[in-house]
Specification:
Layout: E1 2-4, H1 7-19, E2 24-29, H2 35-47, E3 50-55, H3 75-84, E4 89-91, H4 95-98, H5 125-140, E5 144-148, H6 152-164, E6 170-174, H7 194-199, H8 202-215, H9 221-232, E7 239-247, E8 261-269, E9 272-279
Parallel strand pairs: 1-4, 2-3, 2-5, 3-4, 5-6
Antiparallel strand pairs: 7-8, 8-9
Helix pairs in contact: 1-5, 5-6, 8-9
Length: 280
């Protein structure tokens, strides 16, 4: 496995593979890897001749009061995990390589996909994500990009960016991977206290209540969301940021609950922001 920090060298290697008619699957990460990341890698390995992963904590996607400095960084452990998964190349750029002196370009995203959910609470976040991923795609030049459903709005936005900019990369969105108690796997879970970790499964529990109501025939959005919210409010330490029902493809508000509706939420536990969703 190669660990390369220089974008031009990554590009050179990937182009060589493509010229030999090989396919390249790409898994972008910010490190602090968990089983969710590794499932993306495994899916990429099934569908491609080579897999490239990146590890880079991107400052552009963090707001001034967010957790950039506290975000877990475990590079040595991450590289060991990726080597075991037979990743061919890991792109590990520094800030200087990604945003050298004189860098002045940003990708600005807007439109209906960014009207609610996380976009309403994290101004500039998706511009930062789009900018770094477009740069990563330019370096790696993959056949396919692998993203997780947990970050549903981010995945939908990136798929649209790739279409809009004619980047010619197939987007593959993989299911959420969960802990034994239902908590969606996230690098930020490492920042939870013991009590917070015990509390956090309430998020998925509440979403499952919404699914159960729909399975029993309830289609009124307000009623379903009200019952989901009641479950979350059982835990006083959980600070709900948003709870929404949207169409899973368009991310537009769902006036009625139906097949394909996504229930999505964001909440703070121990001042750690966690997100989750379930598609009915």
């Amino acid at each position: 496995m190669k660990d390369i920090a220089e974008p031009s060298l990554v590009h050179k290697q990937s182009i060589k593979w493509l010229q030999n008619k090989k396919t390249v699957g790409f898994v972008p990460t910010m490190g602090a890897l968990h089983e969710g990341h590794l499932e993306l890698v495994r899916q990429a390995r099934k569908e491609n001749d080579y897999v490239v992963a990146s590890i880079y904590v991107n400052p552009l996607q963090f707001g001034p009061n967010e957790d950039f400095k506290k975000y877990p960084r475990t590079l040595a452990a991450d590289l060991s995990l990726l080597e075991k998964e037979k990743v061919a190349l890991v792109f590990t750029p520094s800030d200087k390589e990604m945003y050298p002196e004189g860098y002045s370009t940003k990708v600005k995203v807007e439109g209906s996909l960014l009207q609610g959910l996380c976009a309403a609470y994290r101004p500039g976040h998706f511009d930062g994500v789009a900018t770094v991923v477009v740069k990563l795609l330019g370096a790696v030049y993959p056949t396919r990009l692998y993203l997780g459903q947990k970050d549903a709005q981010q995945a939908a936005m990136l798929r649209q960016v790739i279409i809009d900019l004619n980047l010619g990369v197939e987007t593959v969105i993989c299911p959420i991977v969960r802990e034994y108690d239902g908590l969606a796997m996230s690098s930020r879970n490492k920042r939870l206290t013991l009590i917070g970790r015990r509390t956090a499964p309430i998020l998925y529990k509440s979403l499952k209540v919404g699914k159960s109501l729909f399975d029993l025939g309830e289609v009124e959005t307000s009623k379903v969301l009200s019952e989901v919210k009641k479950i979350i409010q059982e835990e006083k330490s959980v600070k709900l940021q948003y709870l929404e029902a949207v169409h899973s493809q368009t991310l537009q508000p769902a006036s009625r609950i139906e097949k394909g509706t996504m229930l999505a939420l964001a909440a703070f536990i121990d001042d750690v922001r966690l997100i989750d969703n379930i598609v009915l």
